[in-house]
Amino acid sequence: MASQQQFSALKGKKVLMVGAGGIGCELLKTLALSGFQDIHIIDMDTIEVSNLNRQFLFRQSHVGQSKAKVAREAVLKFRPHIKITPYHANVKDPDFNVDFFKQFNVVLNGLDNLDARRHVNRLCLAAEVPLVESGTTGFLGQVTVHVKGRTECYECQPKPAPKTYPVCTITSTPSKFVHCIVWAKDLLFAKLFGDKNQENDLNVHSSDVASSSEKAEYVFERRKDEDIDQYGRRIYDHVFGYNIEVALSNEETWKNRTRPKPIYSSDVLPNGLVQQNGNLDKNCATDDLSSVSAMASLGMKNPQDIWSLMENSRIFLEAFKLFFMKREKEIGNLTFDKDDQLAVEFVTAAANIRASSFDIPLKSLFEAKGIAGNIVHAVATTNAIIAGLIVTEAIKVLQSDTKNYRMTYCLEHPTRKMLLMPVEPFEANKSCYVCSETPLKLEINTRRAKLRDFVEKIVKAKLGMYFPLIMHGSALLYEVGDDLDEDMVANYAANLEKVLSELPSPITSGITVTVEDMKQELTCNINIKHREEFDEEKEPDGMLLSGWTRASSVEKDDNKPIGNGGSTSNASVEVEKNDEIRTVPSGKKRKVREVPMAAAQDFSNAADGTRNHNELEVIVDEDDFLMLGQDPGINKKKRLQ
Amino acid sequence: MDGEVLTEQETALYDRQIRVWGVDTQRRLSKAHILVCGMKGTVAEFCKNIVLAGVSSLTLVDDRVATEEAISANFLIPPDENAYGGKTLAELCCDSLKDFNPMVRVSVEKGDVSSFGGDFFDKYDVVVASCCSLATKKSINEKCRKLSKHIAFYTVDCRDSCGEIFVDLQHHRYSKKKLDENIECQLQYPSIEEAISVPWRALPRKVTKLYFAMRVMERFEEVEKRNPGDVSSADLPGILKLKKELCEANSLNESHVPDKLLERLVMCTREFPPVCAIIGGILGQEVIKAISGKGEPLKNFFFFDAMDGKGIIEDISSPDSGS
């Protein structure tokens, strides 16, 4: 294998790597050592301290610099005569179009998010360039090969969707720590420090009457001449005290639940304690705003400690104060960032205080940060193994060794003695809307939903299109592009605000809408069906797309919705789930001779239990390999050759 | 170990991996001393992994000078011979590895590893032997076993697109998670000498062919007094003859050791970089497991062949010895 023949297969071949992170660093190194001569690499990120434990091409002195560029320099040190072309850019930039992709013999993904993976998948399909896809989480990983006309595409199988929580669970009846984090991050933090014009469900109560709701809007504003400490305590008392009292007044909610207890700052912190202990001077030594820290000013060091209610309350008030004293300019524009120490401290403390109210076990800043930031668990070893597997597949692709293409799973616990388990790739899913252009079906209230809802919730969020064009018959309803004239732009802007059935070319039940993304060269037909009512909890989008493979994972809420108070928006709060790993494809019916559940469990755990357990059909012949079962209704298992 | 807190610097640097293996494992790693002998591509990969993980110290032994073959799969050494200045492989690797993590002490020990006594190995928690003869591996293994301290011993080698790891954790206690509960377990390992002396016919029928092929290669180098990996296509007839003899002596059907496989191992002795990455990664994970005492370690061989893509664990120990 490591022969002349193999090296000659690499000669003159051009590869594109997308991602220069955990997998990317390992991959670039292994490609260079293996004899690849012409490597292009795209990554929009800059280097951070928390990358250094595994992205071994980077050093402390590189923090803040482009990953793609530094990775190139580092690899040229041990392989100076190869060509590496870095792009410090987003792979979704229009410059990386189908023509750009066409110049490569193979594309290798080392990405960390679903959107970019889908985008690259589409460009590879359009450019007819083979794609080797990969992902890791902790000790688990996988490599898959996608070649148009020979194997399934990346989107042929359902992907775990971002986890969503019903609004009422977050606003009124949290039962897990993550609910408190979502509340602290997406509601409280956003309300206090984010864009004031954003819809926010923070003050939604089941028993809200219009008057109190109106009044509530002003509660969060700082009053004239209000001392910052007073302001902080007032907010504290409002969200942890008053709001809980209001919620408690709805007896119906608490019939089968433990009643939360309201917490007021004066109960936890005697007056004056904050000023006494808070030592802002510790933060004055530096002008670097990113290092402003409530923990530092309170002399708390260990992020692994679980703080008491009192400590959380002090952190909360101190962090609140620091935002106003040190970072006032940013207020109104802040969004939560896991690398923003003060924001993490504030969110941890707020989540913990709320957790205290609801009798949910508290967590350390370290853990809270992981949950709030959806931090991917990552180690160097898994990335190195996966990169090695990517290169072996890439070499097969370049040798057109089609019958030996494999997808490989890297497991934590052996299955049938295997830690690395190769599986034959699947055939394309004939009903995949991406590679087979099968029409989709959309149930929607055509008399109420606006074109904007359709664009945001379906075209962008579900179909992953960035430069969409929407047509009904020959009528153009909407498009995005740089070269549109003003009239068109105004026309499309007006269309966005129109209800579907009132568009110039009305979208009504029974018609077919065509959605295209020019950059991805993807066209989708969507059959429209009018439906009057949608279940607010189960179908928070107010529309239902089917024939579309992405698995839904709205958290099953065992709490009944409270009253009809509802929320100011019907979008549930979303938590992006890390998507570095894709689960083993699931099937409904399987012929299973032997079921190595460990493997299936590894993967269903990785996907946070959102997936069915998967079973594997094992061919016991020694020189054979494993095959994963798939729904025979969709796709019969077939060897590719 | 209790009560000690990782520094802020450690917490920031190791954040992502602490989320995988926990603070306790990170603390244990930061106290572990690792010795590696034989610096080729696979060991370079392992060293990178273990330095990034944050062990206390890593000591390298390899007095050979850099040759094109020795660095073909080693990213720690730049290809510019003028920059070597008479340095050994271990010294060149050490220079690079130091940069990977300022919190890990990387150093070089000079000398022939086979001449080192028990006192020498007593300083380490983990010993990895590569690119050395079977006799050397056996002797290091025995020296480690004689010490009262439990040293985790590994050998690792890659030929062509195949790789092999051997593990001897002697008597190893560990905890593993089962249904959210930690259960205490233990495993008894044979030494390398005991393991490879298990008669072939006593092994399970499905043992990977690679196990036998690697033993044939090892034996050939031993009887011909070759340096490790020093074989060429001219040796193929001799190797095939030896295979026949070994199969006969072990009453094993020759089809368990295909000529094609031996041919691959003979024709291309260079390491294949993707396999170095894979084997070096698995070895890194196993060493971390052994140090942490958490999770079931592999017992006692691991094989990977890029040709079929399988990464297989084989337990090669004599059933009656309880090991």
Quick overview:
The complex is a heterodimer of chains A (641) and B (323). Chain A contains 20 helices and 18 strands.
Helix share bin of chain B = 40-55%
Poorly predicted tracts of residues of chain B: none
* CATH architecture descriptor text of the largest domain in chain B: 3-Layer(aba) Sandwich
Strand content of chain B: 15-25%
Total domain count of chain B: 2
- Shape call of chain B: globular
- In CATH, the architecture of the largest domain in chain A is 3-Layer(aba) Sandwich
**What fold name goes in the CATH topology slot of the largest domain in chain A?**
Rossmann fold
Rg of chain B over CA atoms, rounded to whole Å, is 20 Å
**Average pLDDT number of chain B:** 91
Placed side by side, the strands forming the largest sheet of chain B appear as 3-2-1-4-5-6-9-10
Helix and strand run of chain B: HHEHEHHEHEHEEEEHHHHHEE
Subcellular location (chain B): Nucleus
GO biological process, one term (chain B): protein sumoylation
Pathway (chain B): Protein modification; protein sumoylation
InterPro entries (chain B): ThiF/MoeB/HesA, ThiF_NAD_FAD-bd, Ubiquitin-activating_enz
Can you give a write-up of this model?
The complex is a heterodimer of chains A (641) and B (323). Chain A is α/β, with parallel strands linked by helices. Chain A folds into three domains: 4-156 and 377-423, NAD(P)-binding Rossmann-like Domain (Rossmann fold); 177-359, Orthogonal Bundle (Arc Repressor Mutant, subunit A); 440-546, Ubiquitin-like 2 activating enzyme e1b. Chain:  B, domain 3 (Structural Genomics Hypothetical 15.5 Kd Protein In mrcA-pckA Intergenic Region, Chain A, Roll), CATH 3.10.290.20. Chain A has 20 helices and 18 strands. In chain A, the strands form four sheets. Chain A has an eight-stranded mixed beta sheet with strand order 3-2-1-4-5-6-8-9, with helices on both faces. A six-stranded mixed beta sheet of chain A has the order 12-11-13-14-10-15. Chain A has a two-stranded antiparallel ribbon with strand order 7-16. In chain A, strand 13 and strand 14 (522-530) form a beta hairpin. The longest helix of chain A has 21 residues, at 228-248. The two termini of chain A are 21 Å apart. Chain B is of the alpha/beta class and 323 residues long. Chain B has two domains: 8-194 and 271-315, 3-Layer(aba) Sandwich (Rossmann fold), CATH 3.40.50.720; 196-267. Chain B has helices spanning 8-13, 15-29, 41-53, 68-71, 89-100, 118-121, 134-146, 192-197, 209-223, 236-249, 259-267, 273-292, and strands spanning 33-37, 57-61, 105-108, 126-129, 152-159, 162-168, 171-178, 181-188, 301-305, 310-314. In chain B, strands 3-2-1-4-5-6-9-10 form an eight-stranded mixed beta sheet, sandwiched between helices. A two-stranded antiparallel ribbon of chain B has the order 7-8. In chain B, a hairpin with a 4-residue loop joins strand 9 (301-305) and strand 10 (310-314). The radius of gyration of chain B is 20 Å and the shape is globular. The interface between A and B is large, with 62 and 69 residues. Strand 9 of chain A pairs antiparallel with strand 10 of chain B. Chain B: One of its GO terms (molecular function) is SUMO activating enzyme activity. Chain B: This is Ubiquitin-like 1-activating enzyme E1A.
